Amino acid sequence: MDKKRSFHSICRWTFNPGKGGFVPANIRPQWDGQNLTTADVVTLIKKRIAPRLPEWVTLGFELHYDTEINENNVAEVSDAMIDAGIYLAMITPGAHSHFGYGGIASLDPEERRQAEELGTRTVDLAYGPLKKNWHSDPGLAPSFVLWNGSYGYDLATIGVKKMYQNLKESVAALCKYEAKKGGALYIGIEPKPNEGHPAMLLPTVASALLFFRRLEEEFGISRAKKGVNKEFGHSEMIGLDHVYDTVEELDNNAMIHMHLNSQGYNDGITLGGPGRYDIDHGTKINGFNIAIAGLLQEAGYQRWYGHDMLTRPYDNEEQGLDRVVRSILSWEACAQAAANLDTAALMNALANRATAKAEDLMRNALVEAHTFFNQLYKG
User: Rg of the Cα trace of the chain?
Assistant: First the structure.
């Protein structure tokens, strides 16, 4: 395998004591917020995950403001990241933790104002005390992701149009604010069809792409460094094709970040999939991911691969750490198989309608990916 660098980011929220709800909320007591701070998570990644990864992997960290990172703990977290050699890969304003009536799209002007301020404070933190945690390569500057979890509603009224307009105006203002700070961040929308409301604004990749085009047309916001946080599982949840999503994202030069987690159904082993809630399995080795890896390689994508995953509700701490390692190695295995695939033979088979031969090539790539994963995991 080409030993050029591969950039993987790990999320703070993966390290939680338990899911709660219908399963225990304290299955991993050592990961309780009182026992495991955000800075402690960085140290845990350094000691327990990084040594198990290939030498060509560079690690980043992903954070929600203001629940996981804020003005009170940022100095400690920043120092821990420097000590661990881990970069800031992504930061997001955790509006869903505070605002249940639309956030920056809200028809309540006070909620909207507060949500907008949360966003600008997040920008300030990224450009302020966290700036020293950016990778030196401008192409690896952090992503600033807007998750649409608070941009939702449950009533069918004409107010939905006003919510969408509020959203455009607020995001345009945020982009202008960030541009004055330096314009170095990559700003992306993370689409999701549901959660945390019955109906969501920006539910699909196409919605996010159109949204940034409207910002350009209405407010003069450049689409450079703007786009989509590709979330494989969110497309899977409503039965959309995340391979074609990739084509759209790359065709619009809008692939600014990605979350590789899967809903699980497409590996033939783990249950989940369309119509289920957000399960957040780590990366799966399957033909879909090999195809996506090939598209990314063809396009020259060299930014962060994020692992927005939850450890299973029955995992202990050791198993939880192992899940993260497996997710990273699984993507590396898919990337290896994609790089070795005889694309000329594949395209020739497709051109000649020899689809069984094309299927054979993809199946062989899948076998290779599993073999390479085993080598990496044991090594």
Answer: 20
pTM above 0.85, yes or no: yes
- Per-residue pLDDT tens over the stretch 58-104: 999 999 999 999 999 999 999 999 999 999 999 999 999 999 999 99
Residue 190 CA, chain-centre distance (Å), reads 8
Phi and psi at 108, nearest 5°, equal -85, 110
Q: Contact 105/151 with Cβ under 8 angstroms?
A: yes
Q: Give the pairing type, strands 143-147 and 186-190.
A: parallel
Q: Is residue 260 part of a domain?
A: yes
313: DSSP letter: T
CA 131 to CA 322: how far, in whole Å? Answer: 30
Distances (CA, A) of 153 to 140, 197, 201, 202, 241: 35, 6, 8, 12, 25
Domain total of the chain: 1
255 contacts 143 by C-beta, under 8 angstroms:
no
Beta bridge partners of 306: 9, 259
Residue 144 maps to a domain: yes
Could you read off the pLDDT of 119-176 as tens digits, one per residue? 999 999 999 999 999 999 999 999 999 999 999 999 999 999 999 999 999 999 999 9
Instruction: Assess if residue 368 is contained within a domain.
Output: no
Q: How many CA atoms lie within 13 A of 343 on its CB side?
A: 11
Pick the closest to residue 133 from 58, 60, 241 (CA basis): 60
Is residue 348, in this structure, part of any structural domain at all?
no
CATH of the domain at 195: 3.20.20.150
Domain extent at residue 115: 6-341
Residues belonging to the chain: 379
